[in-house]
Amino acid sequence: MPDLVTIGETMAVFIPDAGLPIRDASCFRMRIAGAESNTAIGVARLGHSAGWISRVGNDGFGEYILKTIENEGVDTSRTKVDNNHSTGIMFKQTINHNSTEVYYYRDNSAAVHLSPSEMDTNYIKSAKILHLTGITPVLSRNCEEYIYKAIALAHENNILISFDPNIRLKLWKGQDYRHLLKKILSDSDIVLLGLSEASMLFDTNNIDQIISTIFSYPKIKYLAIKDGSSGAWVCTREEHYFIQPFPCNSVDTVGAGDGFNAGFIHGILEGKDIKTCGIYGGIVGALATETYCDIDGYPTIAKLNDLASKYMKEG
Length: 315
What we know:
The protein is an alpha/beta fold. The chain contains eleven helices and 14 strands. The strands form three sheets. It has an eight-stranded mixed β-sheet. The chain has a four-stranded mixed β-sheet with strand order 3-2-7-8. Strands 5-6 form a two-stranded parallel ribbon.
């Protein structure tokens, strides 16, 4: 059964050719976009088993998503094909170097109708790590209930919970979900969040204060605070390290945070120390920025090991 199980919506994403704005584009490339499936794919490329749970529409977009994720070695057997609701889609355009804008068409999509009553509890119980984001529980009330049910199962079966708030204000639609995200964070063992997200949740940019506040929740064992091209802080209750950014030729930062998560989780699954987990995360996240598609830059285990070895020698 999977080392990692994750739950969340994946959409078909359309990207204008030649970096054009949408208004000027006549040709688009179709790829997939989903924070949870991104992390599952990253983990699978690094040699671990991973499963992705969701719903897709009974349409060509859903078929494309399932085929793409399955081809990456991720198990989709618990993802439902919904005959009554369509697959969500999105469009992404580059505004300037390292800045993108997205447009969602996911209201009432199949994934919004994820039902707790359909959960395969034994499948989740079999995982070593349950990876969640703050995207899924704000999609609908039943998605929120699904996540809480999965959290309860993880707690009952000593499964590590990994959580990235992955704040998407467009999905909040004027509501404030900070309390919900902090509740899930407090129930997690592994917390992976951006510095800007930490600032939004805890009303401070002070790293020491953020670390202290997050570790005031007794369940949390591992913490990574991601700051993009500036690097990251990785911590246990006993150790804190700053991870210098891995050099790369960045063209699009979308997918980098999910890539960092995959590298970091890979380190935990391999029993590595917290600093090595952070180095793995930093490398995968950096490589993700070298392509215009979320997952195209994620490395194999051989490439990661080679780059990590060189990085550690030089560091």
